[in-house]
Amino acid sequence: MIAEEVNRKNLDKELEHIGVDRAAFDIFNWKSNLILLKLYDVNGKGANILKQEFLANGGDVAVHRDVASWKAEKTDCLLIGTEKVYKRVYDKLAFEPFFGLTEVRKLIEKVLNKKQPDTMEVNGKTFEFGKKRYIMGILNTTPDSFSDGGKFNNIESALKHAKEMLEEGADIIDVGGESTRPGAEKVPEEVEIQRTAPVIKEIRNTFPDAVISIDSYKANVAEVAIKNGANIINDISGLRFDERMKSVAKEYGVPVVVMHIKGTPENMQKNPYYENVIKELLEYFDERINALESFGISKIIIDPGIGFGKRIEDNLQIIDRLNAFKIFGKPVLLGASRKSFLGHTLNKTVEQRLYGTLAADAYGIFRGADIIRVHDVAPHKDLLKMFEAIQNA
């Protein structure tokens, strides 16, 4: 006799190997699906009630030490239980609408009903988020981007690079005409349009099946790009810097990448600070998703914004906790490619950061990234193939 610890994701395979009646699979999944859910700023009295309800149903809640003595006005809570436990507590909380427990019940409902990210149809291509991962290849038509500025700022070189990335396996070509590196100054929108629109038009004419995104926070730039063949808006501001961007996204019905940024490119790296970076990003995406969906925009991809108003430790923590953002049921994009936190961690120049990028992206994929935005497509295509081969073994 010998023992082996079983990964939760392999449960069905193990049940089948043992010879369990398939009719019982759901029962075992129900009993083994342990959920850890962290709630922030829960009313202290409500936390006491919540803990008692979880204990009564076979789970538990970790709270601040002063909650039991009623001294804590608020506390963060770590809820621990199986899906079955959560369902029982959820039913009980319907009769306890006190001390913020109605809001707690709504959050538990969100977890119980959590769905895989939506499948999206873009230019005839089906993105099966939750089942596959995708590569967004970076095409900067700028003279001053931090990594490849000046390399692709004419149509001929840009088209050649787009062709190379598509042949290497890029699923999306992300075209940008303004550098958003730390300290970068704004570019007039007419200049940005001149840099991006002709390139997008040429890519669309040459590669009609390509999926193209426009990397811009300016509504006019995005609209002209869409009219010339772009399919996605990638907005570093989360559709906040230009109020008309929401109207453009809604009118053309295109997916939007909603990124988090603290400040603007000009000032975002001037002493950024977070009490709790994950909490702040969760609150930001909750507000943005609700606002955009209320406006009529439903095709949303979220990007935590590595390097955009973040310290080194913030970037590392975000990648480690990327799965926290899956609670929204939206695809998650990770853009770590060649960024400065890699350089500081590894003491490497921009040109030497490929291996660090691959490590960060591999960990990000493991933690739930659906799209990785990269400069180097070919090695990342190998990374995805190997990752999925291991995962599906």
Structure, described:
The chain has 393 residues and is an alpha/beta fold. The protein has two domains: 8-112, Ribosomal Protein S8, Chain: A, domain 1, CATH 3.30.1370; 120-391, Alpha-Beta Barrel (TIM Barrel), CATH 3.20.20. The chain is built from 14 helices and 13 strands. Helix 6 (155-168) packs across helix 7 and helix 8 (219-227) packs parallel to helix 9. 40% of the residues are buried.
Quick rundown:
This protein has 393 residues and is an alpha/beta fold. 42% of the residues lie in helices and 16% in strands.
Keywords, separated by commas or semicolons:
42% helix, single chain, TIM Barrel, eight-stranded parallel sheet, Ribosomal Protein S8, Chain: A, domain 1, 393 residues, 16% strand, alpha/beta, three-stranded antiparallel sheet
